[in-house]
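Q: I'm building a small set of examples for a reading group on sequence design. Run inverse folding on the following structure and report the sequence directly after it, with nothing in between.
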């Protein structure tokens, strides 16, 4: 699947089968995140891949549906970088697209994860000075939603707004 096809097919998937994800595929997905552009090439991230079912169950505090994921990729950022939020977002989108290209479903979980950041940091042994930016549950999709998107002509402006 090429990049444009992955962009067109990517959806936020919240229902998964119970199928496991091969380690090599998880490494490929995380590698796509690692290769994202960063401000001043600081690369202020670490990625924790969780496949243990007992550990994944702990993430259900951010959404019961997460418990069915084959893996959860936890994006850990270093806020010392001036651009840590933008850099993390770029890495997350790369991983979501890589997962789609490999045939998996995934979802960017931030809003429901941030209030539980301290809990997740303790669970994973993340140093106090780092931030858990997001969880990315990944799995074999058990659904393929088709949300309405605004037409290009409604959002594209030439020369001026």
């Amino acid at each position: 699947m090429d990049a444009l096809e992955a962009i067109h097919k990517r959806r936020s998937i919240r229902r998964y089968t119970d199928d496991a994800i091969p380690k090599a595929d998880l490494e490929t997905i995380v590698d796509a995140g690692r290769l994202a552009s960063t401000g001043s090439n600081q690369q202020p991230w670490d990625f924790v891949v969780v496949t243990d079912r007992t550990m994944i169950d702990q993430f259900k505090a951010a959404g019961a549906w997460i418990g069915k994921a084959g893996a959860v990729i936890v994006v850990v950022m270093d806020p010392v970088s001036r651009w840590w939020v933008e850099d993390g977002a770029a890495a997350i989108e790369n991983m979501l697209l890589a997962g789609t290209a490999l045939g998996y479903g995934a979802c960017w979980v931030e809003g429901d994860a941030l209030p539980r950041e301290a809990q997740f940091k303790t669970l994973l042994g993340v140093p106090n000075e780092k931030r858990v930016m997001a969880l990315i549950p990944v799995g074999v999709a058990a659904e393929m939603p088709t949300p309405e998107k605004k037409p290009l002509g409604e959002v594209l402006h030439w020369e001026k707004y």
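The chain has one domain: 3-141.
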